[in-house]
Amino acid sequence: MVNNLKKQIVILLITGSIFMTPNILSEVIIITPSEDSQERLQEALILANPGDIIQLTTGIYNFEDSLSLDVDGVTIQGDGHENTILNFSDQKSGAQGLMVTSNKVLLKNFAVLDAKGDAIKVKGSDGISFINVRTEWSGGPKSSNGAYGLYPVESKNVLIDGCIAIGASDAGIYVGQSENIVVRNSIAKFNVAGIEIENSYYADVYDNTAEDNTGGILVFDLPGLPQQGGHDVRVFNNSIVHNNTDNFAPEGNIVGEVPRGTGIIIMANSNVEIFSNRIDDHETVGIAVVSYINDDDSDDFTDSGYYPHPKSVQIHNNEISRSGSNPDLDKDIASILYEISDGDMPDIFWDGVLPLKQMILGQPNNEKLIIKDNGEIDFAVMNPIRYMLSLPYQLSRDQSEYSGSITPLAPVKID
Amino acid sequence: MNHNLLTFLIFICFSSSLYAVNDYAILSDKTPKALSEYDFFSDPLNQIPNSDVVPYELITALFSDYTDKHRFVYLPEGTTAKYEGEEVFDFPIGTALIKTFSYQTNEGGTLLLETRLLLNKEDGWDALTYVWDIDRGDAFLALGGKTIEVTDVVTPTNANFIRYRAPNKNQCKECHLKDDAVEPIGPKPRNINKAIAYENGIKNNQIDHWAALGLLEEKPYSNDLMVDAFNDNHDINLRARSYLDINCGHCHSPEGSASSSGLYLSIDDKQFGVFKKPVAAGRGSGGLSYSIVPGQAEESILLFRMLSNEPDIMMPESGRALMHAEAIDLVTEWINKMK
């Protein structure tokens, strides 16, 4: 009797697990390179059901139009980013190589080559993973390259792991207006910005390599966008080295203002923790902490909800070496710093720009910049009022004011 | 008895000719492979609709490579669309919006390209396109889209080759997405508030006509915000804003596909790009700093992107292979006159 009951329970569990597991009904759709890859892959992407895997076998796939996926729960996977190549060098229409607009999507083991615009754009997705994906423009750094390699925007629960981004004329890995983000084990090189986290909340960027970009890692917040007030970003254990490639961004874009030879820039974010990174050999500066400064006609485009200054930024336990040997004087940040430092460029620079009241009376304690345990480094902070009025002592190199205690930010959790 | 049967049979014949559209095909989960299965047309090759399928026009239309567009609306018998303020009408389940794209050929004939459908199903609007096969007299479902290489057709700019793209299903959504749902774009009251000639030759305002047919609830409507963008008699500002509304505003809205750009171009948007900086435009910025610089069209990204046919620069991103010369003139004049 008891045995029978046990048997029944076991059977129930087994059948239960068969019917409960969504994957059991999922299909693997195999696509091989062919003359009509475009139509076959696009139809497969449209007709896919949640749980399906679209398997792209080894080979080069040539596309003339962009591809897009709008079905939840689909995996697109290749045989490795050196073997399955989605080639867009003859692209004639579409502003990106691949566009994803659905949730719980996994992109894995393939490469997107020479897209005319962005390589992979993901918009409005909850649950997007890029695993071992490569995006590359094969002709080296050129302003005619597409803007972004891996480009999730307005998304949640974003994982970028083991990816490679090369040659983007804006950012190799760009996460914009998103939330709950992990970027790790990835390589970004020969882009204008290696990795950029913009107008985003809760991001962990770690164990990556950013080298030979114009700027290694950028944490930015810009006005006039649906999501702003970027906060809670941790950048740690990264190797940020030799980002000395001339800025090749098309003018008019914010990254066009990044000086060649910059390791990290933090602009107008709050709660940022930069730690345990190796930041070596940057011709302008290792780390710059700056405000978003509106220096032109665009006052008309006002945005009252925007806070342009960085606050609660903690920079600790980094190893920073060989900064400022040949600053990029074409860019404002570099030329101003060069001028006020008499050419003695620091490893870490803060522009000191705050709301006027705070510049005079001081910042609230919990918003102050903290610089701690970064070894023997040069630090410099500008006095913007003295700079504007051409008074002496425009730069201070005293680090002691910035040695508060570190309050670690919580790790990001991805659902 | 016999008399009654006869009447009934006549009624069946009569009604089937009057109400010939296949409602089942519109609502079915199994998407018909051929356009003919819907029975929208009594003469498909000449785009003559069945009697319960009503042609309509927009005051200003989306530019699609100078194609001619034949638009029709079908509502199931006895149903009525309702106003949603200034938004797209609230159409009943079973509604079909039908749009055929064609060119005039140099020989004076008509080249049918595709017929796009928006079908209002139980779970929302479905966007589909059917590509014409003239030899078979029918159009066939193209979920993955299709490239049609067009030559020898009439365009104002004498384009001798057009790489025309019938959109794939996802590209349909690209423009028709509002928040997470597919929505029609054209049939808003402000877009159809004009008189057109109906088959009997009588001119009538479309809103009045729809209401008289019982397709639309009766309600006084007056809004002349949208104007014909290419009629010089109207104010240049309204002409340009009308053009941008119908060509850009569906994506460039807080609910649309271009929400992340922060550039919004519906006719009633107060900030429409004056001194707006590009965000993630890449090469699309063209080295320029703002979407619109008043008085300086050549410094304005908005115009720059209309002046390109390169995939990563051109706007709209999809749906055109040619430049819209008349619109370029319009927007140039508008920005140059702006203070």
Description:
The complex is a heterodimer of chains A (415) and B (339). Chain A is mainly beta and 415 residues long. Chain A has a domain at 137-402: Pectate Lyase C-like. In chain A, 12% of the residues lie in helices and 39% in strands. Chain A has helices at 2-20, 37-47, 332-340, 356-361, 384-388; strands at residues 28-31, 53-56, 59-62, 65-69, 75-77, 84-87, 93-100, 105-108, 111-113, 118-123, 126-131, 134-136, 148-153, 156-161, 164-166, 171-176, 179-184, 187-189, 193-198, 201-206, 209-211, 215-220, 231-236, 239-241, 262-267, 270-275, 278-282, 285-290, 311-316, 319-323, 348-350, 370-372, 379-382, 395-396. Chain A starts with a helix and ends in a 19-residue tail after the last strand. Chain B is α+β, with helices and mostly antiparallel strands and 339 residues long. Chain B has two domains: 21-213, no CATH class; 236-337, no CATH class. The longest helix of chain B is centred in the N-terminal third of the chain and has 17 residues, at 2-18. Chain B starts with a helix and ends with a helix. Chains A and B meet through helix 2, strand 4, strand 7 and strand 13 of A and helix 3 of B.
